[in-house]
Design goal:
Distance between the termini: 121 Å
Helix content: 40-55%
CATH class of the largest domain: Alpha Beta
Mean pLDDT: 75
CATH topology of the largest domain: 60s Ribosomal Protein L30, Chain: A
Largest sheet: 7 strands, mixed
Length: 271
């Protein structure tokens, strides 16, 4: 048998296996994505749209939570630092002093306050809710805004998140009458603040009521010190804080501030 004959027999010995050629890998394209959307119809479009919207929403929520955590941690640290037994006193121009104090509500949420107290030379006129005297001389509302709320005090007020106008009354007179007078004084200060500071920031009224007159170290013949003019600026607070409870706590935690127990009320209401 020749070589050629052998070759022919080998070629026809059995069926020839087909050659499988791997399919070319499809490259991703915008057209393929568009086809997927169209073939899948509304469901695919809704699913894709939801995914696109969900990703930035999750990012925003994460960033918001991180910012809120840092903010609350900063407030908590400042409250701790601003709550010594005796609040540090700083002068504001020639008319007032202020104390930075922190307080917490029953849930542990805190707030930081600047208590601005006009000097002893500037007090409410006894028996009046519309007159302030400085060194014995009556001040008009305009005088109060321009001379008492000077540049230093004004900077604290304009930078505050919220303001609290405090009303007090001295020990003379009946309880009901003096508590009402204290409320009128708080409202009067709030009106002056609204005119002097302006803006849309919230203003609160804090009625402390009538002083009990008890102070062994004080001059019992003079009660001007029982009628101070106090303005409170809210600097920072944790979300959901009970402002009245935190403010009461701030008063109670410091020995050199007016004691709420020395007055007949502690009522915070919106202006």
């Amino acid at each position: 048998m020749s070589r050629s004959d052998h070759h022919d027999e080998d070629e026809h010995e059995g069926p020839i296996a087909p050659v499988v050629v791997p399919a070319a890998r499809a490259e991703p394209s915008l057209w393929a994505f568009w086809d997927w959307l169209l073939v899948g119809g509304t469901q695919n479009i809704i699913a894709w749209s939801g995914t696109v919207m969900l990703v930035p929403l999750v990012v925003v929520l994460i960033l918001h939570d991180a910012f809120a955590w840092r903010h609350n941690a900063g407030v908590a640290h400042e409250i701790l630092a601003a709550s010594p037994h005796r609040a540090r006193q700083e002068r504001l121009g020639d008319s007032a002093v202020f104390y930075r104090v922190g307080g917490r509500d029953a849930q542990g949420r805190g707030a930081l306050f600047d208590l601005i107290v006009m000097g002893r030379r500037t007090v409410w006129v006894r028996g009046r809710a519309d007159q302030v005297a400085r060194e014995g001389q009556l001040l008009s509302a305009e005088d109060f805004k321009t001379r008492v709320i000077d540049m230093e005090v004004g900077r604290h007020l304009t930078g505050a998140r919220e303001l609290v106008a405090v009303g007090v009354a001295s020990a003379e007179g009946t309880r009901s009458l003096e508590e009402a007078r204290a409320g009128e004084r708080a409202r009067r200060i709030a009106g002056w603040l609204e005119e002097a500071v302006g803006g849309k920031r919230p203003i609160w009224l804090l009625n402390l009521g009538q002083h009990d007159g008890l102070c062994p170290a004080c001059d019992s013949d003079v009660t001007d010190w029982q009628r101070p003019i106090i303005i409170i600026a809210l600097e920072r607070e944790e979300p959901g804080v009970d402002l009245e409870a935190a403010l009461r706590s701030a008063f109670q935690r410091t020995a050199n501030l007016p004691e709420p127990e020395s007055y007949s009320r502690f009522e915070l209401t919106p202006y």
